[in-house]
Amino acid sequence: MTSTLDDSEKEKARSVSVDLNNDASLLIDIPDALCERDKVKFTVHTKTTLSSFQKPDFSVPRQHEDFIWLHDTLVETEDYAGLIIPPAPPKPDFESPREKMHKLGEGEATMTKEEYTKMKQELEAEYLAVFKKTVQVHEVFLQRLSSHPILSKDRNFQIFLEYDQDLSVRRKNAKETFGSFFKNMVKSADEVIISGIKEVDDFFEQEKTFLLDYSSKIKDSTARAEKMTRSHKNVADDYIHISATLNSLSVDDNTALKKHLEKFADLFEKLRKVEGRVASDEELKLTELLRYYMLDIQAAKDLLYRRARALADYENSNKALDKARLKSKDITQAEEHQQQCLQKFDKLSESGKRELTSFKGRRVVAFRKNLIEMAELEIKHAKNNMALLQGCIELLKSN
Amino acid sequence: MAASSPRNPPPLRGAENQDPLSEMADEDSDEGEDIFVGNSNPVAESFQPDTANGEEPADLFSEEETSTAVNSSITTFKSNGVHSDNENDLFAEVSVELSMENPSTTAKTSGAEFTPSLTLSATQPRSMEQLEEEKDEDSFDMDVAVTNPEKIGDGMNAYMAYKVSTRTTLPMFRNRTFSVWRRFSDFLGLYEKLSVKHSLNGCIIPPPPEKSVVGMTKVKVGKEDSSSADFVERRRAALERYLQRVVCHPSLLQDPDVREFLERDELPRAVGTHTLSGAGFLKMINRASDAVSKMTIKISYSDAWFDNKLQEVESEDLQLRKLHAVVDSLVNHRKELCGNTAVFAKSMAMLGNSEDNTALSRALSQLAEVEDKMETLHQEQAASDFFILAELLADYIRLLGAVRGCFEQRMKTWQRWQEAQSTLQKKREVEAKLLWANKPDKLQQAKEEITEWEGKVTQYERDFDRISVTVRKEFLRFEKEKSKDFKSQIVKYLESLLQSQQRLVMFWEAFLPEAKAIA
What we know:
heterodimer; A: alpha+beta; PX Domain; about 70% helix; B: mainly alpha; about 5% strand; phosphatidylinositol binding (chain B); phosphoprotein (chain B)
C-alpha cells in the first residue's frame, strides 16, 4: 500500500521538530512510501543547489535499516563527538493494528456485517496512521541532518541521499552486534563516570543534573501518555459496537422507540469518529512529542558522556604525564598525548555548549507548538461533539 | 468533588448553592415536616420523569450517607439547578414543569441538568401525546422515592434500610405525604406477593433488583470503600425504579399489599426470600416458557399477534443483552482511561518540576492539572455510562423476562382450557359407553361429571379470553412505557455527555493561554 502525503498533510504531520527544511540549498522529503508485509520502502527525494551533488533533483529508495546504518556511522565518527546526533527513527511498528486485525477476523462471526465493515475501516485507518507516523519520523531524521551546519556535509549522508544502488546495507552483522553491545556496556560505565566526575564547568554541571533527571521523567511520561491514548482508542472502538447494536435493535423495533434508537445509533457513529480523532491527535501532539524528545535527550546525554570520557582521558593523561616526569621517561610522548586530550576536551566542550543551548531552545519551541496545537484540537473536537449532541438532543426532544 | 467519590451521575449544577432544609424530622410523622410542598395538581405526566428523577438522589449519597447530611442532600436533590429557595419539594422538578404558576419553571439553566423527557414550560402547549395520556390514565398522582440508605446493626446481621417516601393525592392513602423504612427483603417480599396474586392474570409485574451475596457481605463487614458505596447506590437507584414502575401500573397500585408496603410503619419480615429472589423466579419462568414455546399452538388469527410479539421480545432480549455487554465494556474502558489519565497527570507534574525553562515548566504543570480534571470527567462519564445506560438495559432485560412470563401464563391458561376440553370429551365418551352398557347408577355420576366439566370448560375459556385481553393490554402499555423510558434516559445520557464536553472545552480553553505563554 502506497501513501502519498500532500504538502498540507505533511505540514500538519511534521510537528515535533520545527524550522526544518527551510534552507533551499538542500531540501529533503519523503514523498511516498511502499509497505510490503513488514518492510517499508521509503522514497527519499532530494532537491539541492549544492555542487557537491551530482544532480539537482533526485530520488532513491531506502529501507529502515539504511537509516539506522547512517545514524550509527555518524555516532561512531570521532569528529562529531561534540554534536548531538539526531536520534535514529524507531522501527516501523505495525504490531498493534495487525494484532487487532487478527482479533477482528476471529470475532467476525459474532458481529453484523456493518459492524465488521466499520471495525475494519477503523483498523485500516489506524494502520494508515502508523504508516504516516513512521514516514514522518524518518523524514524528520533526515531533515535534522540537512539543517545541521556540520552534519549536512557528512560524506555518508551524501552517499545515503545519492547512491542509487541498493546500499550494501551494513545490517548489524555479528561483529557489529557485539560491537554495539560492548558500546552499551561502556555507556553504562559512562553513566557512573559522568555522575562521579568532578565537573569544572558550571554550565555542564547544570546540564548534567538537568538532563539526568529530565531524561528519566520524560521516559516515564512517554510510557504513561502511550497508555492513556491507547485507552482513548478503546473507548472510541466501543462506540462502534454500541452504534451497531443500537442499529440492530432499531431495525427490529416497531414502536415509537425505533426512531429514537436510530438517531441514537447514528449519533454514536458520529461521536466515535470524533473520539477517534481526539485519540490520534493526542497521540501525535502529546505522546509522539514526548517520545521524540525522550530520544533527543538521550542523544544529548550521549554527548555529555563523550565529553565526560574526554575529560577522564584528559585527567588520566595528566596523571600519566606526572608519572613520566617522575620517571623521566617518555615525557614528550606524554606531553603530546596530554595536549591532544586537552584539545579534544576543549573542542567537545565548546561544541557541546553550543549544541546543548540550541537543543534547549529547540525543545521549548517544539513543546510550545505542540501543546498549543493539542489544546486547540481538543477544543475543536469537543465543540464538534457538543454540536452533535445538542442536535441529537433537540431532535429527540422535539419528537 | 474528589476523585474518590463513588461512581454516580455527574452532580447537578447549582446543587452546591442550596440552603439546607431546616430540620427534617425523621421519618413518618408528617406534622410540620414538609418534605414535599404539594404544588398544584401535577397530572399523569408526573410519572414519566420518575425514572429520570430516580437518578438524582444518587449524587447526594456520593457526598455523605449520614442522616444529618440528608437534609441538605434532599434539598439539593430537588432543586436540580433550579434555584428555588422556598420549595422543599422532593419532586419539585416534576411539579415545577407542570404547574403553570411556578416561577421557577423559567429559572432552569440549560443543558446541564437531568431534565425529564416531558419538559413543559409555562407557555408551551401540551403535546398530543401528553393529552392522550391524560385520557388514558385518570389523574394519577403518585410519586415515590427511595433515599437515605442506612446501615442498621453490625456484622453479619447488619442490613441496609432505605427510606421510601411517597407523595400522593390519591384518596386511598391516609396521608398526602409519608415515608417508611424498608429493607431489601421487604421489596422482594412485595414482589413475591404481587406475583402470586397477579401473574396469573397476565400482568407484567416489574421485577426487583437481584440479590447479591458478594455486594451485601462487603457492606455488612463494614468495608467503607467506594465499591460498597457504589453497590449501595446502585441498589438504591434500582429499588427506586422498581417501586416507580410498580406504582405506575394501574392495577398493581390498587393492590392493598402495595399500599401496605408504602404506608405501614412496621412490615412483617418477609420470609423465604432468601431462597426466592427476583432472579430465581425469573429463571423458573424462563425455563418454563422455553418448554412452552416449543409447543406449536395456533388457534386463531389473533394468536399470530401473540406469536409475533413473543418473537419480538425474544430477539429484543438478545440484542439488549449484547448492548449491555458492550456498554459494560465501555464503562470498563472509560474507567481504565480514567486511571491512565491520573497516572499520566502525575507523571506530567513531575516532568514540569524537572523542566528548567520557567514558562515551559509552568505550562507542563498546568497541563498536569488539566489532565487531572480530565480524569474526574472520565470518572463521571463512566458513572453516567453505568447508571443511566447500563442499568436501563439491565432493567429491561429483567422486564422482558417478566413479559415472557406473562405470555407463558397465557399459554398455561390455554393449555388448561384444552385439557379441560379433552377431559370433557372423555367424560362424554364414558357417558356414551355407560348408556350403551346400561348402568343407570354410574350414569348419574357421569352426567354430573359432564356438567362439572362443561362448567370448567366455559370457565377456562373465559379465563383464557380474559388473560389474552390483559396480556395484550399489558404488553401495549409496556411498549409505551418502554419507549418513554428509553427516550428519557437517552436524553439524560446525552445531556450528561454534553455537560462533559462543555467542561472539557472550559478546561482546555483555560490552558491555552498558558501554552501560548511559553517562551
